[in-house]
Amino acid sequence: MPTPIPGMDPYLEHPALWPGFHNRLIAALDLDMAPRVRPRYIVSLEERVYISGARDQIGRPDAVVYTPREERHGNGSSVRETRSSGGAMVLTAAVPTPDQIRETYLEVRDAASGRVITLIELLSPTNKRPGKGREDFLEKRLDATGTRTNLVEIDLLRTGERMPAFLTDWPPDTRPPGDYRILIARGRERPMATIHAFTLRDQIPSFPLPLSPEDDEPPVDLQRVVHTLYETLGYDLRIDYRQEPVPPLEDEDATWAAALLHEQSLR
């Protein structure tokens, strides 16, 4: 079954689904692009690992930041409270601990020299909120933009702080356009870049894959890759469209999505 949302399905942004979808989409893009850039180039799936702090854990579905005093919750669970012989309360708590974060990305390399020609990043929530994850990502981003390496940055997450990019043709005191973005920063055109901005109601645009200046740029049909992945892996069986998406939609988009799902008898 294809996704009921014609563009980017916001239900895929749920914290419980996004990490797996992120890695699978990176792998699917690898399989899609590799045959079309050979034999001159190879596409390499890479992984970065870093240790996050407590700030990076906030918002993760498995994070425990604070436990209140004894009370009965709506789900029937309770927090156990005891007292020591001196009368002090003794509580069971979990403290934030360093967490190992793994992120996958793609490199297009020259097959003969092994030189990185293009870096392809798919943003994760950790990249878009304050903390070590964002700091490390921005450092790697600066390393790339300080060279002739092409950068493709795909942001399919509505929430969080966007990556730095100064729009030259947009009023500085107004909200930048689009819910989602694809940034294309060619090494030969630095510091200028192109941003494909699109909304929840738009089709995900195809984008040209930048390579060496003398080579043609094959188009990447990101919409097709996303929908094929959704259908092949059965995300329609994992998502309950009767519920609101997480993160929630804004009012007009929520009304639009609800009507669309109702038409398809999913609500």
Summarize the structure.
With 267 residues, the protein is an alpha+beta fold. The protein contains five helices and ten strands; from the N terminus they run H-E-H-E-E-E-E-H-E-E-E-E-E-H-H. A hairpin with a 5-residue loop joins strand 4 and strand 5 (116-122).
Could you explain the architecture of this structure?
With 267 residues, this protein is of the alpha+beta class. The chain is 23% helix and 22% strand. The strands form three sheets. The protein has a six-stranded mixed sheet with strand order 1-4-5-6-7-8, with helices on both faces. Strands 2-3 form a two-stranded antiparallel sheet. Helix 1 packs across helix 4 (222-232). The longest helix is centred in the first third of the chain and has 20 residues, at 18-37. The two termini are 16 Å apart.
Termini, distance in Å?
A: 16 Å
Strand proportion, as a percent range, falls in: 15-25%
Radius of gyration: 22 Å
3D shape: globular
Number of strands: 10
What is the average of the pLDDT values?
Answer: 86
Q: Which structural class should the secondary elements be placed in?
A: alpha+beta
Largest sheet: 6 strands, mixed
> Could you say how many structural domains there are in total?
1
> Helix fraction?
10-25%
Number of helical regions: 5
Uncertain segments are: 54-78
Order of helices and strands: HEHEEEEHEEEEEHH
Largest sheet: spatial strand order: 1-4-5-6-7-8
Please describe the topology of this protein.
Blueprint: H1 18-37, E1 41-52, H2 54-57, E2 81-83, E3 89-91, E4 99-110, E5 116-122, H3 132-145, E6 150-155, E7 180-185, E8 194-198, E9 207-208, E10 219-220, H4 222-232, H5 251-263
Parallel strand pairs: 5-6
Antiparallel strand pairs: 1-4, 2-3, 4-5, 6-7, 7-8, 9-10
Helix pairs in contact: 1-4
